[in-house]
Design a protein that fits this description.
The chain contains 7 helices and 12 strands. The chain is α+β, with helices and mostly antiparallel strands and 248 residues long. The chain has a 5-stranded mixed β-sheet, covered by helices on one side. Strands 1-2-3 form a 3-stranded antiparallel β-sheet. A two-stranded antiparallel sheet has the order 4-5. Strand 2 and strand 3 form a beta hairpin. It starts with a helix and ends with a strand.
């Protein structure tokens, strides 16, 4: 929190050091952050029979996703793929961010350890669920790394994820500078190692990589070659944007 406030101070000089100290004191007074030592100290409230452990639910979600993609590679029957896809999204609906705060018992974008039978979500903090949810989200976009190459297999992606109207997509590039992209209807965007990736609904599957010098390279198939993938992973600032046309 302190690092974020100090960074904010650089762009908003009207925020004084005294004000930052005041915010930090208010935060500590409300959340008593220094007292949360995890399981190395004491258990937080009740944990036991009847509790839902959200990390375990996220592990289940990721396991079903892995099974789905193994079935895709094995060329399983479409009915099998559809059942796996249905199970995946049923599980996903049970995870906090997809619930309303009243049902979840907390801010749904915050990670919580568990939910006892008799109350809402308990024990906030950076649980292992966060890692699983990030992996699952990339999996929903069909981002797979094979032989050191970024590959796109968006077989799990839903068409309703794409924008219904134009919107601005803000992100921070590899130099930690805020950038903006205008996305149109039928697009969605995310980043890989701070490089923007734009998915575009189309009737064919193609991958175009635009370099920082403005040149565009069409990839072979639905993957980014090894050299460019490594450049993205290493944040070399050579790739400006990746555009992926897909037929969902």
């Amino acid at each position: 929190l302190k690092e974020a406030l100090v960074a904010l101070q650089k762009t908003s000089p009207e925020i004084t050091t005294a004000e930052i100290d005041s915010i930090l004191n208010i935060y500590e007074t409300i959340f008593d952050h220094q007292s949360f030592t995890g399981r190395s100290g004491t258990f937080y409230k009740y944990e036991g029979l009847g509790s839902i452990y959200w990390h375990m639910v996220s592990k289940l979600l990721l396991a079903v996703q892995d099974t789905f993609y193994r079935a895709v590679e094995a060329k399983a029957h479409p009915s099998v793929l559809e059942k796996l896809r249905s199970h995946y999204y049923d599980i996903r609906e049970g995870i906090g961010i997809h619930k309303n705060p009243e049902l979840y018992g907390a801010f749904t974008t915050d990670a919580y350890s568990h939910t006892p039978e008799n109350s809402g979500a308990q024990q906030p903090g950076m649980t292992g669920q966060v890692k699983e949810d990030i992996l699952s989200r990339f999996g929903e976009f069909g981002v797979v790394v094979r032989d050191s190459k970024i590959t796109f297999i968006p077989a799990l992606l839903k068409k309703d994820e794409f924008l219904k109207a134009s919107k601005i997509f803000d992100y921070y590039d590899v130099n930690n500078k805020k950038q903006s992209l205008t996305l149109n209807q039928g697009m969605l965007a995310f980043t890989i190692c701070q490089v923007p990736v734009v998915f575009i609904l189309a009737k064919e599957n193609t991958v175009f990589v635009t370099m920082k010098d403005g040149s565009a390279i069409e990839m072979d198939g639905m993957e980014i070659d090894t050299a460019l993938s490594q450049s993205i992973f290493q944040r070399e600032d050579t790739v400006r944007i990746v555009r992926v046309s897909i037929d969902v």
